[in-house]
Design brief:
Length: 440
């Protein structure tokens, strides 16, 4: 795969994945196109050596793995982890508010979103609908309006000079998208709008009643290459669909010499505490089914390594004082190893050294990121998975600007560098007991 092909595929993946549900569906399609076999959780698994498999949970998290002839307890697993969700505005169950000549949509803020960039954007809605069929059974479908259907207008500067400050935005009153003008003779019905959209997306759909939904607003502007020399990629949900796409492509395109796995978890942006989050049992349950023998299971984990891939911060040229200048990544200088003394990232000197050596072998530049000591950093799925499983972990990420904004920016080379590193990770045979040994 060439860099241009990787970036084109990334842009398509971003544009087709407005929610975690759609991201998992996009991942599922890529895996099926590369001959991975779906394993339903509720059915018996029959695994074969040299097989390629994937399993989903909640239709928003996905684990894929490749098995070789080599025993897992001898080789361990090489794992890349990322998350499918991004900060967004989630539609409330009974959302429509009809007042002041306008119909607005009530929302909750999902995750730690930068709020001001959501104003004056062409917004659409996507997510999951659960409905009852005419025979009484429940069914779920993904839905995506795709076109601009709402907007959150800013308050004119003449009316409030400080209206653009995020800290002053009232999430309940000021962040409510306008959907349409009011028609006092016909009160709006949100489920009718959803029913009409489902009928457009699915031919001859059998619906008795829409029961519930999990819907999110998103910006309709597509992701794209930008900059006079196309130095950047700008788009929504780069944190962390970039890492998801990179992991999928690496496990699909590589020729693993050992057993490999990717885990793409939902709900990272809100703490990962869910059945499909990194604090849940999804990975543990999957490992237990692959290796039901406790002794072999523990030996496998002891020989495994996880690359937790989640975006890092690039040095912002307009705010250089916000960074530790010795540890401030730059655009297109490669992925950044993320370190934190309080284990907000799971990197240690051994896993960091391994990743630096891996990048050197693949001829990939690599950087290091440490937050200023007087500022708090975020976290990733890395510490959660390593604490739950005991698997050695390194946190890395593509440097980015405007993290958690409605539109984020990365260097156009850096996703390609991370892909090459993950691809090399899956292809190189190694025994973790060898590279973690320390002589006196």
């Amino acid at each position: 795969m060439q860099k241009s092909d990787f970036n084109t595929g990334l842009l398509n993946f971003l544009n087709n994945s407005p929610t975690a549900f759609h991201a998992a569906a996009s991942a599922r399609k890529l895996l099926k196109d590369n001959n991975f076999i779906h394993l339903p959780e509720a059915q018996t698994w029959e695994l074969k050596a040299a097989g390629k498999y994937f399993v989903t949970r909640n239709n928003s998290s996905i684990i894929a793995f490749t098995l070789t002839e080599n025993a897992l307890s001898d080789t361990g697993l090489r794992i890349v982890g990322a998350h499918t969700d991004s900060p967004a505005l989630k539609v409330k169950p009974f959302p429509l508010q009809d007042d002041h000549n306008c119909v607005r949509v009530g929302i909750e803020v999902y995750g730690g979103a930068l709020l001001t960039p959501w104003f004056d954007r062409d917004l659409s809605i996507a997510g999951r609908i659960t409905y009852r069929k005419n025979n009484g059974t429940l069914k779920s479908k993904l839905i995506d309006f795709r076109r601009p259907i709402a907007i959150i207008p800013s308050l004119a500067i003449h009316l409030a000079k400080d209206s653009t400050k995020s800290c002053d935005i009232n999430k309940e009153n000021e962040l409510t998208p306008i959907l349409m003008l009011s028609n006092n003779n016909t009160p709006p019905d949100f489920t009718t709008l959803l029913h009409e959209q489902l009928s457009l997306e699915y031919d001859r759909i059998d619906i008795d009643e829409i029961i519930d939904h999990e819907l999110f607003f998103y910006d309709t502007q597509p992701a794209c290459l930008t900059g006079i020399n196309k130095d950047f990629i700008s788009g929504a949900r780069l944190d962390n669909l970039l890492s998801c796409y990179t992991a999928i492509r690496a496990i699909c395109n590589g020729t693993p010499q050992s057993n490999a796995m990717i885990i793409l978890s939902d709900h990272e942006e809100i703490g990962s505490t869910s059945t499909s989050g990194a604090k849940g049992s999804f990975l543990r349950d999957t490992l237990d089914r692959i290796l039901p023998n406790t002794e072999e299971n523990l030996r496998c984990k002891a020989k495994s390594l996880l690359i937790s891939a989640d975006n890092a911060h690039t040095l912002h040229p307009n705010y250089p004082d916000k960074y530790d200048h010795k540890h401030a990544p730059l655009f297109n200088h490669g992925p950044a190893i993320k370190l934190n003394a309080e284990q907000r990232y799971a990197t240690n000197s051994i896993t960091s050294s391994f990743f630096q050596t891996l990048c050197k072998q693949a001829n990939i530049p690599v950087q290091q990121f440490v937050m200023r000591s007087d500022m708090a950093c975020g976290s990733t799925v890395g510490p959660l998975i390593s604490a739950e499983t005991g698997i050695k972990t390194i946190d890395v990420g593509v440097p980015s600007l405007a993290m958690h904004s409605i539109r984020e920016t990365i260097g156009s080379n850096d996703g390609w560098y991370l892909y090459r590193a993950c691809n090399k990770f899956f292809e190189l045979p190694f025994n973790c007991n060898e590279w973690t040994s320390i002589s006196k």
